[in-house]
């Protein structure tokens, strides 16, 4: 079984995000970038499937600027077999991404597409679902446990009310949640071997997709600064403040 | 000439090591300090990551870093407690390099692939009860008997010897020649009959590292175990000095890592701790402590990087290596001391890492050549220059 894993280059999760002064987005110049953490979990799951003998080939795909090649290399170092880089702007919208992935899926013919449930930069949480819809495939989202069966898989999903287990037929799109696994560290010898693994480069036009803008960002602002707490002298004062300042009782 | 790995791959290697240090090693520091042991699971992770093979050539399964790259990677790992580096440090540095530099093809083929993965570990056995800084005065004897050597003697403070697979051991093969001449280097499997490894030493700091005494009683090894074979009989001290030249740059990197950590800890504390109604980082006397540390760290980095780059270009660097080792480790001692001072009373408490750093880094001014030995090496090079009529 071939597995496709889309990986996104995002601002590293350790970086303190700063909003651009003109409120058009967040600062990405001279900021450390790395693989979206949810995508790392997806890569790890694919590698485990390969180690278990279920997956035969893992293809890592990234859509973004040239430097996204580094993100693909990380996936290759973790155990993916080859990469596909679609060179595009950094801010391609989820629907265009899903359309490009669809074109790649049709070309590559994977039985499973493993995605992070969302990217930590724009938190869209749409690509996996849109891809499934475009392909007419079943989807299993927010997976915290996956068990492969013959021609299908049992997926435990983290939903508001608790855990839900569903069975989906393959081929399918699976989006992974935080608790599915703990991604491995790429070993130094594997980082060196990854250099020799092939990466195909293409453009959105090669895939027949025009990444048109459908969404308009009005403005991006910092969250309001949290106000410092205060001590009250008595219960009466507390009740007064809750009633008249906070207006919660 | 050592080029190491390409820049792009190296950036990924450095990032992987940095992340491993921050996510796995630093959170385990307290456990190491309390149990005086690096957890077996972490040792395994370090093997899996490839840290044991950093300096071993790629043709033998190692990562094959240049010395410049080794400096950068070791400085990352050495931000965590020094015990972690010590676990694989002898495989990267003094334990393996004798074989890498002077070993025969057979010795390299037999040992380097195992050392690269951590399947085998190596210790460097030079120091003796009566031969420390006077390493040339060592008394351990190796006597040729047919195709074998019979070795008798004692070694002291040998790092990782209680877990080592092999010792890279210096012994006197020509008793008629005093001093450094007449010493040969041997590869000695620790399971050879006649070897006794003592109990681990109790030390001031660097808890989790292991050093032990070793006694050798009629230890018989094939003559083929002499590093470099018969061609290098009585040349072992030269091998040891080549190993230590490289090791001194490695030590500088260690000092740089601990200096960075001490500065990070002190800076974060100073920016948070309030006295007289404001953060103590606002006070100029505290700023002076921080600034002196930053400048000394920068000087250490410049020296180590320059010396490593020269080494990678094939230059002989006895003076630069000694300067870098002496300066970086002495500076690290001062930087750790200032960090404790910035923490005030809290800096004396074991719950803050600067207390441990202060004790741990003290050893760096002693091992792999004391500061005083480095001074002698530097001065010797200077006097040679004077005798040759050379000016700077």
UniProtKB/TrEMBL annotation, chain A:
Alphabetized UniProt keyword annotations: Electron transport, Transport
GO MF annotations in UniProt: electron transfer activity
GO-annotated biological processes: carboxylic acid catabolic process
Cofactor(s) needed by this chain: AMP
PANTHER family found in the cross-reference section: ELECTRON TRANSFER FLAVOPROTEIN BETA-SUBUNIT (PTHR21294), ELECTRON TRANSFER FLAVOPROTEIN SUBUNIT BETA (PTHR21294:SF8)
Entry function: The electron transfer flavoprotein serves as a specific electron acceptor for other dehydrogenases. It transfers the electrons to the main respiratory chain via ETF-ubiquinone oxidoreductase (ETF dehydrogenase).
Self-association and partners: Heterodimer of an alpha and a beta subunit.
Family: Belongs to the ETF beta-subunit/FixA family.
Protein name: Electron transfer flavoprotein subunit beta
């Amino acid at each position: 079984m071939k597995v496709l894993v889309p990986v996104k280059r995002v601002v590293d999760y350790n970086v303190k995000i700063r909003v651009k002064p003109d409120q058009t987005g967040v600062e990405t110049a001279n900021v450390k970038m790395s693989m979206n953490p949810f995508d790392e979990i997806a890569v790890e799951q694919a590698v485990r499937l390969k180690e278990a003998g279920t997956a035969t080939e893992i293809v890592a795909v990234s859509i973004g600027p040239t430097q996204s090649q580094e993100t693909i290399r990380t996936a290759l170092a973790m155990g993916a077999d080859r990469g596909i880089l679609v060179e595009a702007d950094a801010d391609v919208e989820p629907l265009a991404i899903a359309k490009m992935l669809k074109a790649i899926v049709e070309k590559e013919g994977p039985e499973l597409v493993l995605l992070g449930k969302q990217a930590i930069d724009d938190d869209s949480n749409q690509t996996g679902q849109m891809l499934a819809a475009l392909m007419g495939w079943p989807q299993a989202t927010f997976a915290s446990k996956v068990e492969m069966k013959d021609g299908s898989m049992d997926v435990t999903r983290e939903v508001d009310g608790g855990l839900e287990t569903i069975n989906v037929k393959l081929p399918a799109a699976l989006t992974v949640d935080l608790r599915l696994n703990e991604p491995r560290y790429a070993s130094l010898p594997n980082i060196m071997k990854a250099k020799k693994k092939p990466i195909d480069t293409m453009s959105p036009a090669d895939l027949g997709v025009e990444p048109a803008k459908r969404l308009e960002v009005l403005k991006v602002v910092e969250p309001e600064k949290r106000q410092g707490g205060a001590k009250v002298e008595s219960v009466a004062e507390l009740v007064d403040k809750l009633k008249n300042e906070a207006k919660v009782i | 000439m050592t080029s190491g790995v390409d820049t792009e791959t190296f950036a990924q290697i450095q990032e992987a090591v940095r992340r491993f240090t921050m996510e796995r090693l630093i959170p385990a520091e307290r456990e190491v300090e309390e149990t005086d042991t690096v957890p077996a699971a972490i040792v395994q992770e370090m093997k899996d990551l490839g840290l044991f093979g950093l300096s071993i050539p790629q043709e033998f399964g190692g990562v094959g870093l240049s010395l410049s790259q080794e400096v950068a990677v070791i400085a990352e790992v050495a931000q965590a407690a020094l015990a972690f580096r010590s676990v694989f440090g002898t495989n990267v540095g003094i334990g393996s390099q004798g074989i890498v530099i002077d070993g025969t093809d057979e010795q390299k083929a037999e040992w380097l692939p195992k050392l690269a993965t951590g399947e085998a570990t190596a210790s460097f056995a030079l120091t003796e009860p009566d031969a420390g800084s006077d390493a040339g005065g060592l008394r351990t004897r190796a006597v040729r008997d047919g195709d074998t050597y019979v070795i008798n003697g004692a070694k002291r403070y040998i790092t990782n010897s209680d877990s080592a697979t092999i010792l890279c051991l210096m012994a006197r093969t020509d008793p008629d020649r005093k001093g450094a001449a007449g010493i040969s280097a041997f590869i000695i499997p620790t399971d050879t009959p006649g070897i006794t490894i003592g109990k681990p030493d109790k030390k001031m700091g660097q808890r989790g590292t292991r050093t032990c005494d070793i006694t050798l009683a009629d230890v018989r090894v094939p003559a083929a175990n002499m590093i470099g074979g018969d061609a290098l009989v009585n040349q072992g001290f030269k091998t040891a000095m080549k190993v230590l030249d490289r090791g001194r740059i490695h030590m500088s990197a260690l000092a740089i890592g601990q200096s960075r950590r001490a500065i990070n800890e002190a800076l974060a504390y100073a920016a948070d701790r309030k006295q007289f109604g404001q953060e103590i980082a606002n006070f100029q006397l505290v700023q002076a402590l921080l600034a002196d540390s930053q400048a000394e760290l920068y000087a250490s980095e410049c020296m180590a990087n320059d010396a490593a780059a020269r080494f990678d270009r094939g230059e002989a660097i006895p003076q630069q290596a000694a300067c870098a080792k002496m300066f970086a480790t002495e500076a690290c001692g001062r930087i750790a001391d200032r960090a404790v001072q910035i923490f005030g009373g809290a800096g004396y408490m074991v719950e803050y890492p600067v207390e441990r750093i202060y004790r741990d880094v003290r050893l760096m001014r002693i091992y792999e050549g004391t500061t005083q030995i480095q001074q002698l090496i530097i001065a010797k090079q200077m006097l040679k220059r004077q005798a040759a009529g050379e000016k700077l």
